[in-house]
Amino acid sequence: MENLQFTGKMNQQLMTKVRAIRGAITVEVNTKEAMREAVMELLTDIESRNQLDYENVVSVIFTVTPDLDAVFPAAIARESPQWTNIPLLDIQQMQVKGSLAKCIRVLIYLNTAKPQSEIYHSYLRKAEKLRPDLSLTHAFLSNE
Fold it and tell me: Which of 103, 121, 113, 124 is nearest to 21 (CA)?
């Protein structure tokens, strides 16, 4: 019986792949409070829509546009106990003329058996402009 349980766990592990969840959100002002609210809103949306199991998260990369420097998004994430032991990294987003301002982006790597088509990417507030194709897809799926 123990061999069957072990084999089942091995098969489940073999079926998992490293996937990534993308997300972005904007803030109106460059303050710790505004950034804290936005990061928590973004992570909560990603967590709930993807039924995130923190044990499966490999690492997380946050980027911010050059006009945001009030606080590190990773420091905000670490305020929640489930993010404490996950490797987090902050990077400044490349500045491109005409690009979306005051934007926080996230890239979460995780091990999952879900196909990429079942991963929900969250683009909130003005960041919906970054991926209008996903906004339409998510609106359609929400209405089913």
Answer: 121
Tokens 């489940």 correspond to: 12
Distance CA 138, CA 18 (A): 22
pLDDT for 82-129, tens place per residue? 999 999 999 999 988 998 999 999 999 999 999 988 999 999 998 988
Per residue in 1-16, pLDDT (tens digit) is 455 455 555 555 557 8
**Which whole-number Å values give the CA distances from 29 to 5, 7, 34, 78, in the listed order?**
53, 53, 6, 22
Rounded to the nearest 5°, which phi and psi values hold at 61?
Answer: -120, 125
- Determine the Cα–Cα distance for residues 43 and 28; give it in Å rounded to an integer: 18
Query: Is the CB of residue 107 less than 8 Å from the CB of residue 22?
Result: yes
List the beta bridge partners of residue 63.
Answer: 91, 105
48's enclosing H/E stretch is helix 32-50
